[in-house]
Amino acid sequence: MTTFVHYPLLWGLLLVGVPVLIHWINMLRQKRVPWAAMEFLLASQKKHRTWIVFQQLLLLLLRMAAIAAVVLMLAQPVLQSGWGAWLGGVRTHHIVLLDDSFSMSERWDDTSAFDQAKTVTGRLVESLAREGDHTFTLQRFSQAGRPVRGTQPDFLEERVDSTFPDRLKTRLADLRPSQTAVGPLAAMEAVAHLLGQGEGERRIVYLVSDFRVRQWDDPGPLRKMLLDWTAAGVEVRLVQCVQGSRPNLAVRDLRPGPGTRAAGVPLFMEVTVENFGDTPVENVPVLIEADGQAQPALSIPRIPPRQAVKERFPVRFATAGEHRISVRLEADAVQDDNFRWAVIDVPAHVPVLLIDGDPEALDARYLSAVFAPGGPANTGISPRIETPRYLTLHPLEPFQAVYLLNVDRLDRSALAALEQYVAAGGGVGIFLGERSSSQVLNDEWHRQGQGLFPLPVEKPVDLPVDYLQRIPDLQLTDHPIFQVFAGARNSFLTSVIVRRYFSVPKDWRPGAEADVAVIARLRNGAPLVVERRFGRGRVVAFLTTAAPTWNNWARDNPSFVVAMLELQAYLTARPTAETPRLVGQPLELSLDAARYEPQVRFITPREDLSPTTVEEAEAAANGQLRATLVNTDVSGIYEARLVRNDGREEVRGFAVNVDPAEGDLRVLDYPELASRLDGVPHQFQLASRYEYAEGEQGGYNLGTALLCFVAVLLVAEQLLAYAASYHPPSWQRAEVLGGGA
Amino acid sequence: MNDSKRFLRPDVLKRIARLDLRARHVVEGFLSGRHRSPHFGQTVEFRQHRPYTPGDDLRYVDWKVWAKQDRYYVKQFEEDTNLRLTLLVDASASMRYGKGAMTKFEYAATVAVSLAYLVLRQQDAVGCLTFDEGPRKIVPQRTKRNHLDSIVQALEASDPRHKTDLTPIFRKAAEAYPRRGMVAIVSDLLVDREGFSRGLRLLRSRGHDVLVFHVLDDDELDFPFSGPTRFEGLEVPLYLKCNPRALREGYLTALQAYLEEVRRACSRQHVDYTMLRTSQSLGAALATFLNHRLATQTRS
Fold first, then answer.
1. Which of A133, A395, A592, B219 meets the CB 3.0–4.6 Å disulfide criterion with A698?
2. Domain, as residue range, for B62
3. Whether A584 contacts A186, CB under 8 Å
4. Is B166 a domain residue?
5. Cross-chain residue pair B250–A43, CB shorter than 8 Å
């Protein structure tokens, strides 16, 4: 069977009649010449008539054949039969890697990058379907980027027949850009196994993508894989669906800010918006919803180009439990990165343990008064005053922070529990006092830097009172605890007088021990407040008392209340607890096997795209159950419906967001792309100008053979035309001109 | 020399409508370019003096005049009519062809009248016979200067028709001009070669010196046509549709064979043959005539 690449050009075969038409017109328009020497003309006619007719007929046929051959050559006939295979035609396997990351949803005019990609794919297959010996594989990036589920091509080595374009069209009509940020490497790895078996077939890989700068910043692995492919005979075609970079804003982050998180207590949320454009943007509105209720919008005054700006906004949840917050930007080139969700677990109150070494618990009472002042003021903090013995007998995990106040000694188990608590992420605040022992502090709590106490101390010393108050006793640094005091001169701070404190060895420097920082000093330069990161938690040690025994800070000084609340917020902040979940990543949930049934029902944000599934939790190594939701293809808040053993249902929310980095819409122009693919043979086309290349036809293309045939025909035509006309040699012409004189 | 030859070019002569004036231009232009030594007669009757020019026979220098005026003059004498020229001019239909400055007939007529003028200028007798399928006009031989008008009228009054065999025409000419003389045939000779050969033989047998001026158009010699063409016979009711380029080689071959046959026929009868292209200068015809005249006098 013979097919043609450009069927419409076959209409050009009508041009075969042109030589006959020209001949006919010439016969009608022939010149009339009255002629005297008819005798010689008739003699010539009589002698050469047969040969002349034969020559002219042959010439006519040659010209008609040449025109037909030119038309056929342009129409690109492809021989599909056994003869075609014998002549060198082979089956061609076309593998289309279709980028459906959400940057492909970029819109302009009335189209989008993904629409362009689908159009290119459709046109390619329509061209292939006109002749038969092709197979087709379609692999989307988003499917390749889900190794947990296994890669699932939409079409895998499907034979391209006359019905295939319709099937593909139906499939493409259902496809939408995903919300993943999967790059080309995953898709290439997914189809690599298909390219290893190319015996007797031609293989062409089409990378239909937007070619963002971000994905090609490190082209090493991509280039290596492409080099391997081309070395194995695979042809690489790059089709870019986007021209030029467009500005775009993306919500980069949404998380609760530092501060006490409790029901009825205002909570500051932090939202980060990034400007991926090359020009600054001003007055960017950020629409906020909390538990489905619209909140006052936030306006970001200015975002410089290619920078992110963090802004805070307050929310207040009256009840304890999980609360959902979302922010949204106005529409721009890409929609998916304009949304961000967060699930905040707001407790009814924040339990805080105050361990006081003094039976009178003077220090504890001062702090307790700060944390729970009573009356209408609600800090959300629930302090509990206990003796050091409590540390040995009770678990510390329920408490958001533990304060050691004027404690002289802890037994070994209490100290170990405390250190384990901090290492796991807990916060401990330490205030020294008359009961504190430098020996205990150094030998048991500090232990040459192995313990939780930040620094070695010497003994309590007095700081002479400066009645002139020329220099404030408290010299604060720009630490989060004291950041609230930064800026304007604060008369309440300057009135703080510290009379007694624990001195430190003169040769001690905070740099000598890791993760230790002095965050406040006295006016004589002695460290007063020292912080240490211990494991995942934090320890902040005040080398003076909390109660106004060694200082007057807690006595009628509002700055003490503010500082202690900031200390509490700092100690309870756990950055690692807010790990963002991204679209495409499996959602894992650990359950206490003793409390929950193993069936977990996951409800997705878009039931139309991702239906509800019930997953069976599996037993994990630590004795807990682990339920996993693999299909997290859309952003939003997922719900896990758990059933307790007592039959009650419990709902947990999980915010799944897009990778904001995908919102960087800078694209590589072809020279840059080519430089990154240095040495990789490839063809490049823009989707908007995509043309079906003749080389993609399967079978044996007769175009080249016809070109040679046309050349032979034209040469033969010229030779015959030369032979059929008369060209006297110069000497013979001179003789004729000279006559017989 | 160049200026005089300008008058011999057909494209220049075409501008002169009157045939006699045209002939005068041709002859005067031709003679002014030659050495000033016309062949005057050798009788004893003195006619005139003229200034000596190098090359003149010293026997004719008039020494008396030299003695009186210290200048060299040569004496010229009246000469008896010793030449009778008969012009046989083809006025058949085939002579109407011509794509250049002149048709073949116009060219032939110009040649004929120029020869007549030249001959009459030398006090010789000239007659003219035009013919197509038969003799059309017969002008007797005369020596008067105004006889040229009769010849011109005969040529201008010709109505071309088909021609057939030349033998009876030549026989008629021999009868019309019985005295021996010179016969100049001006024709395209598109006739039966056998009849032409017999006619020449007849004229030669009557003692005539025969000159053949074979007039052909450039197109007939070169056949430069291209593209579909319908050739319609001027003398035969035939036409031929053809691609001329395809037939050109055969045509030229047949033409060369024909010309060769004509040349051989002339050569056999000791006839001077001159081919004239209608684009060619008329000087060739006059030069041939004068050379032939000189050769005849030398022989006599």
1. A133
2. 48-77
3. no
4. yes
5. yes
